[in-house]
Amino acid sequence: MNLSDKLKKKVFRQIGETADRLGRPVYVVGGYVRDIFLNRTSADIDFVTVGSGIELAREVAKDLPGKNRLSVFATYGTAQIRHRDLELEFVGARKESYRRDSRNPIVENGTLDDDQRRRDFTINAMAISLNADTFGEVVDPFGGLEDLDRKIIRTPLDPDITFSDDPLRMMRAIRFATQLEFDILPETFEAIRRNASRIEIITKERINDELGKIMRARRPSIGLDLLEKAGLMELIFPEIHALKGVETKEGRGHKDNFYHTLQVVDNVAARSDNEWLRWAALLHDVGKPVTKEWEPGTGWTFRNHNFIGEKMIPPLFRKMKLPMNEKMKYVAKLVGLHMRPQQVGEEKVSDSGVRRLLTDAGEDIEDLMILAESDLTSKNPVKVRTALEGFAHLRERMADLKDADAYRNWKNPIRGDEVMERLGIPPCPRLGQLLQQVKDAILDGHVANDHDAAWAYLETLVTPEDRGSAGGTSTSKSSAPDSAC
Ligand code: ATP
Ligand code: MG
Predict the structure, then answer these.
(1) Residues having C-beta closer than 5 Å to ion ligand 2
(2) Fewer CB within 10 A of the terminal residue: the chain, N end or C end?
(3) Residue 475 — pLDDT band, cuts 50, 70, 90?
(4) CA separation for the pair 33, 139 (Å, rounded)
């Protein structure tokens, strides 16, 4: 098969010419070749030559027109050229052998065939020649083309060896199956199951890279389900694994929260590309396994699973080395609030309930609505209709609320510092209570949403004991909370 018509970029001919001048073979290899057949475009192109990749790259950087930035990674034997918007990566063909305790192989120089054998999947192991006399010829020793046609992920060699050598490939197999919507060949998948425990030698950062790619795919559930079935989820994300299963008592079961979660993630993914909203969907019920109880007369309950789930997010993100920044806070907040739109919508509450929801969700109200609507996976038509009506009602109410924007960005007009300074109230739980009462009164519409009205109301709440507990003196910001309370 010849693919010269697919190699229209000038660099391919130019790199072939440089290699010819040096008397060297050169090939495009790996993901770029796969993506030609899948009609996907990529700016990262990998080239392999027999001999030194660095030497070839130096010559190519000189020959290519324009300014080309060359970076050499001597320890890896690779070199990269930035040419226009392309990243051209050069490597010498290599042969790899592995030790059991590391995914870093012992590397020797090898032939093109050796190099293709060390690649993870048949669809990633194809090469196309760039030398003038064979330009465009496909070298496909493991039937990668056929597997692309059949939409199959398969390792070129014995899958047990492939996965045991570099267990990251198990994550990659599942990630490609998700991104490309391909099947993993049963023998290959069985080998992943057998080698799942080897994932322990892979760093969390690399695992997260693959998880992120799964979460950004069109249907993340494909990968999440495969991770679970392979026995990997239990090892890399036990809190999600724990959602699986149904317990039955007195003939009553609860829904399988794992499959429910997968559906919610896909529902969100169909409506939003926001990766962290998708993570919030994945984690929205993470508090359920620990809050599950059987209550005679009521059945299964998961009381406060949203709040418990919210509290679980920071330690979970820390443990998994996920970002400990505003993304984490956003996920925690949405997990905590995920049931509110349905409750508020169905209760047909007064304006104050709607204002409260807007205040708590802030800028993320639309994301929260998407999450809550996506959470509706019940097969009971009555439940679904009631909930849908509730959401529609809530959306109308939010649109009607004249001052909705003021509540979306709402901040208590009274600051704690001011209360401490002017009224001599120490920074104790009582201070929080007072501020909460002011908030309630404003959101319930009993007190105007401005500083003076709020202050006047606050003064009616403060008792002599409140002031007395500070010893009658004004408390400054620097006072130690413990000694003052
Ligand atoms: P994408 O860029 O979409 O992640 P890709 O297939 O290009 O997909 P890269 O990580 O860029 O993946 O790797 C380029 C090529 O290097 C792959 O196509 C594959 O041939 C090879 N490769 C990458 N990682 C491994 C690995 N862990 N084991 C074996 N071969 C690998
Ligand atoms: Mg790539």
Answers:
(1) 31, 44
(2) N
(3) very low
(4) 10
Residue 42 CA: nearest ligand 1 atom is: 2
Q: Which amino acid is at 111?
A: T
Which ligand is nearest to the Cα of residue 170, counting in written order?
1
Other CB atoms within 10 A of residue 321 CB: 12
User: Mean pLDDT, to the nearest integer, of 77-87?
Assistant: 95
Closest ligand 1 atom to Cα of 179? 3
Q: Which whole number is the average pLDDT over 455-465?
A: 90
CA–CA separation, 220 and 346 (whole Å): 30
Convert the pLDDT of each residue in 297-349 to its tens digit: 888 999 999 999 999 999 999 999 999 999 999 999 999 999 999 988 888 77
**pTM greater than 0.90:** no
Question: How far apart, in Å, are the Cα atoms of 342 and each of 71, 332, 356, 371, 372?
Answer: 54, 18, 14, 10, 7
CA of 169 to the centre of ligand 1 (A): 9
Protein residues whose CB sits closer than 6 Å to any atom of ligand 1:
30-31, 46, 119-120, 124-125, 166, 168-169
Tell me how far CA of residue 351 lies from CA of 91, 344, 372, 442, in angstroms. 65, 10, 20, 11
Strand partners of residue 474: none
Q: What is the DSSP letter of 67?
A: -
Percentage of the residues of the chain whose pLDDT score is greater than 90: 74
Strand 299-302 versus strand 292-295 pairing type: antiparallel
Q: Which amino acid is at 91?
A: V
Sign of CA pseudo-dihedral 67, 73, 79, 84: negative
Distance (Å) from CA 88 to ligand 2 centroid: 11
Mean pLDDT estimate for the chain:
92
pLDDT of 285 higher than 50 = yes
Locate 461 and state its tokens.
Answer: 């709440």
CA distance 40 to 193: 30
Range in 107-116, 152-161, 280-289, 466-475 the model is least confident about = 466-475
Mutation pick for ligand 1 pocket among 91, 112, 119 (CB with most ligand atoms within 8 Å)? 119
- Measured by CA distance, the residue closest to atom 8 of ligand 1 is 31
